[in-house]
Amino acid sequence: MLRKILITLGAASISSAHFILQWPPTAGFDDEAESKSPCGDATITVNSSSPEVQVSQFAVSIKNTHPTGQWQFRATTDTQEPYNFTDIVPVVNSTGIGDFCLPNLRAPDDFAGKAGILQVIDNSPDGLLYQCAPVNFVTGSNSTVGSACMNATGFTASWTTEESLSTNATTSGTASSSAATATKTSSSSADAVTAAGLGSLVGAFGLLVGLLV
C-alpha cells in the first residue's frame, strides 16, 4: 500500500509540471511561471561552470508531461536581455509523455568560444512554455549520447516544415527546414533517424527514439 501511495504521489508531481529541460540543465523551473517569455521567469547566469555545448553536435534532453507538443530550439550568445535568439532547427512535433532527446543538434560555428543561452519553447495544450539553459559553446562535436539521452516507450516525433513558432521571443534568424519522421524503433539501442538536407546551418542530425525511460 505504501509503495502504491509513493508511486501515485510521484506521478502526480510529474503531471503537475509542463516540461523540464534536463540537459543542458535548466536555469530554473517554476511551473506557474513557465509561460513567461523568454525563459519562464528564470534568471540566467552564464559562467565558467556552465556546461559546454559543442557547436557541431550536442544533445538536448527534455521531460514532457503533455500528450502533444510543438518544440522550437533557439540559441544566442547575448547573455543579457534583450536576447537575440537564432532558430537552430525546424519545429519538432511530438506525441507521447515522458523523456525524449535530440542527440544531434548544432549551433552556428561562430558561436564557438562564446558564452550563450539555449532556449526551448513548447507550443503545448496549455499554451507557449519556455525554458532556458546557460551554456558555453565550444568547438567540436559530442558523439557520446549517454544514458541521460533517452526516449519514453511509444514516444514519436517528427521534423516539420515550419521554421519557427509564432512567439514573442526575439529571433535573429531561422534554420532551413525539411520534414522527417521518427518513431519508436528499439528499447535497447541508440537508434536515430537522420533528418538531412536542412541547410548549411543545421546540416545532418537525428532524433534518438525508442529507448525505455
UniProtKB/TrEMBL annotation:
GO cellular component, one term: side of membrane
Topology in membrane: Lipid-anchor; GPI-anchor
Keyword Glycoprotein in record: yes
Cellular compartments annotated: Cell membrane
UniProt KW keywords: Cell membrane, Glycoprotein, GPI-anchor, Lipoprotein, Membrane, Signal
InterPro entries: BIM1-like (IPR046936), BIM1-like_dom (IPR046530)
Signal peptide feature range: 1-17
UniProt domain Copper acquisition factor BIM1-like: residue ranges: 16-154
Protein's recorded name: GPI anchored protein
Organism, scientific name: Teratosphaeria destructans
High-level lineage: Eukaryota, Fungi, Dikarya, Ascomycota, Pezizomycotina
